[in-house]
Each structure stands twice: as structure tokens, then as C-alpha cells.
């Protein structure tokens, strides 16, 4: 299966799960008298819209290069990631606002069966986090990484709700607000994760050259090409799931322009064959 197709299937997996869980959380929160669960449902609902955004972004970023976008459309992926972070911040603000209002308003204790619901949700969300994160690492996708952290954020809010409801039930009358304080704690975790998602995507947009392992792999592969005696500058820009490379390679200074040109093409073809995640590769020949 191609990388774009695997990424799209992963997002669809997340989308279907979020739709199902949002409904369960909302119903359990309403009938179980738990705002922490309702807050959890709000975040899952926001996750549905962000998953749709990621899906659209991945489809667009997978489009091939054209006259207006000679390096492809991969930069759409971190831009979509920014929107996803915005959705997460919005959901955290919404949850916090409502939790503060609930703290000031007397309400009933949560139902004990909501703990069972939360336990099942936590297990599913943590499993989903590891599935999506593993695929994000495999595909080098910042959008999928953001999607994975959506699952982890959801698991964290559910853990906070579990703790809050447990305290409320154990403490009894007068401890109802523990459920609402749990929702506030969850907001803090969500905002913390927002930075972890936002920072790598910003680096991708700013073309940060922080791909030391890939640079070392490129240099190693380059030395296997006949005629290449060494490498000098190597700059990498990430765009979606592809890496665009500018490489200065050393050849015998006595070679003709035609011979040097041929070696450059062989080097380019070899790099793209041995390292499939490479996109555009520009080779500059230096005499040694």
C-alpha cells in the first residue's frame, strides 16, 4: 500500500472511532450526571472535524507536482496541522469555561457506572494513539502525529474524568465539583500537547535543517556510487511525507562536464531508489 493511501486509511480509522466515542461519551455524561464526560464528548466532537481537516490535507498534499508547485503540495500538511492545533485550543477553552460555570453551580453526583464507560474509552484511545503514532513515524507525517496526539489527549481527558468521578463518588455529597476540576486539569494537558504538535509543524514550514540521521544516510549511499569521492553541503527540506535534498558531491576534477553530469544523474537515481522518502534531489558537482 502506498504511503498516501496508508495515511488516509489511518485518518479514516480515527474518524470512525471519534464519531462512535463522541456519542457514547455524550450519552453517558448526560445520563450519568458527569460534566467531565460531556467535556470529553466535546473534545471528541472537535476531533471529528479536525480528522476531516487532516483527511482533506493529506489528500491535497499527496497530489503530484505541477507547474505552479514544482516541489509538490506537501506543505499543505503542516498548515493543516496548525488548524488542528487551533481546534484543540478551542476545545480546551470551551471545556474550561463550562467547567468553571459548573463549579459555581450545585449539581448531583455522577453515576458510578460512568467509571466502567471511561475505563473502556481509555483503553481504546490509548490503543488508537499507539497505532496512529506508529504509522506517523513510518510515514514521517506531522499531520498523523497530530492525529495520534488527539487520541492521547482524549485518553488524558478520560483519565482526568475517571479520577474526578472517583473522588466525587468516594467523597460523597459536597465533592460533586471534583468532576468539574478534573475537566480543568484535562484542559491543561490538552494545551501542553498542543505545543508538542505545533512545534515540529512550524519547523517544517520554516525548513529547519534538523535531519541529521537522514543526512548521514544520504552521505553513506552517495559514497556507493562509482565516481563519487565524497560529499560536502547537504540541505534537507521536509514537505509532507517527502524530503527534498540539495547535495554537493565531489568527483575527479579532470572529468569532462558530460561525465560529471552523468555521475550526478546516477547519484540522484541511486538516492531516490535507496531512500524512497526522498522527493526532489538536486545534485551540485564539486571537483576534488
Give an overview of the whole structure:
There is one protein chain. It is built from 8 helices and 3 strands, in the order αααααααββαβ. The protein is mostly helical and 288 residues long. Strand 2 (242-251), helix 8 and strand 3 (278-287) form a beta-alpha-beta unit. Helix 2 (35-61) packs antiparallel against helix 3 and helix 3 (76-103) runs parallel beside helix 5. The longest helix has 30 residues, at 142-171. The model has no long low-confidence stretch (mean pLDDT 81).
- State the separation between the terminal residues, measured CA to CA: 42 Å
- Percent range for β-strand residues: 5-15%
Tell me the count of domains.
2
Number of strands: 3
Q: Radius of gyration in whole Å, from Cα?
A: 25 Å
Gross geometry: elongated
Give the count of helical stretches. Answer: 8
Order of the strands making up the biggest sheet? 1-2-3
Q: Based on the structure given, which CATH architecture of the largest domain is correct?
A: Up-down Bundle
Q: Helical proportion?
A: 55-70%
CATH topology group of the largest domain: Alpha-lytic protease prodomain-like
CATH superfamily of the largest domain: Cation efflux protein transmembrane domain
CATH class identity of the largest domain: Mainly Alpha
The chain-level structural class is: mainly alpha
In N-to-C order, the SSE pattern is HHHHHHHEEHE
Mean pLDDT: 81
Residue runs with pLDDT of under 50 for 5 or more positions: none
Q: Please summarize the sheet with the most strands.
A: 3 strands, mixed
Main location: membrane
Family: Belongs to the cation diffusion facilitator (CDF) transporter (TC 2.A.4) family.
Domain Cation efflux protein cytoplasmic: 212-287
Keywords: Membrane, Transmembrane, Transmembrane helix, Transport
Amino acid at each position: 500500500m502506498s504511503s498516501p493511501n496508508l495515511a488516509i486509511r489511518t485518518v479514516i480509522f480515527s474518524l470512525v472511532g471519534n464519531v462512535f466515542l463522541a456519542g457514547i461519551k455524550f450519552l453517558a455524561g448526560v445520563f450519568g450526571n458527569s460534566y467531565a464526560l460531556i467535556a470529553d464528548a466535546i473534545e471528541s466532537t472537535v476531533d471529528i472535524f479536525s480528522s476531516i481537516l487532516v483527511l482533506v490535507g493529506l489528500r491535497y498534499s499527496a497530489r503530484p507536482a505541477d507547474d505552479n508547485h514544482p516541489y509538490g503540495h506537501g506543505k499543505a500538511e503542516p498548515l493543516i496541522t496548525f488548524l488542528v492545533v487551533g481546534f484543540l485550543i478551542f476545545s480546551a477553552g470551551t471545556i474550561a469555561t463550562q467547567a468553571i460555570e459548573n463549579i459555581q453551580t450545585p449539581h448531583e453526583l455522577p453515576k458510578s457506572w460512568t467509571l466502567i464507560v471511561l475505563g473502556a474509552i481509555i483503553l481504546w484511545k490509548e490503543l488508537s494513539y499507539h497505532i496512529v503514532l506508529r504509522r506517523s513515524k513510518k510515514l514521517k507525517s506531522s499531520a498523523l502525529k497530530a492525529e495520534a496526539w488527539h487520541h492521547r489527549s482524549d485518553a488524558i481527558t478520560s483519565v482526568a474524568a475517571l479520577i474526578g468521578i472517583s473522588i466525587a463518588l468516594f467523597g460523597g455529597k459536597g465533592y460533586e465539583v471534583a468532576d468539574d476540576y478534573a475537566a480543568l486539569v484535562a484542559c491543561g494537558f490538552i494545551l501542553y500537547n498542543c505545543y508538542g504538535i505545533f512545534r515540529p509543524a512550524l519547523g517544517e514550514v520554516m525548513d529547519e535543517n534538523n535531519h541529521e540521521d537522514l543526512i548521514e544516510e544520504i552521505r553513506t549511499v552517495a559514497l556507493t556510487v562509482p565516481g563519487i569521492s565524497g560529499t560536502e553541503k547537504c540541505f534537507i527540506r521536509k514537505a509532507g511525507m517527502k524530503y527534498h535534498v540539495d547535495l554537493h558531491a565531489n568527483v575527479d576534477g579532470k572529468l569532462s562536464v558530460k561525465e560529471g553530469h552523468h555521475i550526478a544523474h546516477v547519484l540522484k537515481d541511486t538516492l531516490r531508489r535507496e531512500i524512497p522518502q526522498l522527493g526532489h534531489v538536486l545534485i551540485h558537482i564539486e571537483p576534488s
